[in-house]
Amino acid sequence: MVKPEFIPLEYLLGRIAGKWTINILWILDTHGMLRFGELRRKLDRISTKVLTERLQMLEEVGIINRYCKPTMPPQVTYALTDRGKELSQPLYQLCNLASDWYGDLTVQTTQ
User: Fold this and answer.
1) 58-106: pLDDT as tens digits
2) Judging by beta carbons within 10 Å of its beta carbon (0-12, 13-18, 19+), is residue 57 exposed, middle or buried?
3) Exposed, middle or buried: residue 59 (CB in 10 Å: 0-12, 13-18, 19+)?
């Protein structure tokens, strides 16, 4: 059996292209370190289960850090790593591109 070729861009996009993942990255970039509850409130309508899964995946690939203070109850916060901060610039560029394209589509569909 032939092993499929590893394609770094495909791997990265597979990690960040989920419904909630970009929003999580955007919020952590704009607000800095946040506790789980704060992050969940900023992501209106996300379930606890989905947020937990996305945060675990982002931590596994080195895009965010999870910090846990041994208090009662534990105080858990999340923040972008240097790798996550490096990802911010291309995300802002994609956001601007999407805004440009969306504006173009809006003009085309209203004419």
Assistant:
1) 999 999 999 999 999 889 999 999 999 999 889 888 888 888 888 765 4
2) middle
3) middle
Q: 24 and 79 in contact (C-beta within 8 Å)?
A: no
Residue among 2, 22, 3 nearest 87 (CA): 22
The values of phi and psi at residue 76, to 5°, are -110, 130
CB 40 within 8 A of CB 48: yes
What is the CB neighbour count within 10 angstroms for residue 38? 14
Q: Exposure pattern of 73-100 as b/e (b: 16+ CB <10 Å)? A: eeebbbbbeeebeebeeeeeeeeeeeee
For residue 31, give both structure tokens: 């607000």
Query: Quick check: 29 and 88 in contact, CB under 8 A?
Result: yes
Q: Which residues pair with 64 in a beta bridge?
A: 80
Measured CA to CA, the distance from residue 82 to residue 111 in angstroms comes to 45
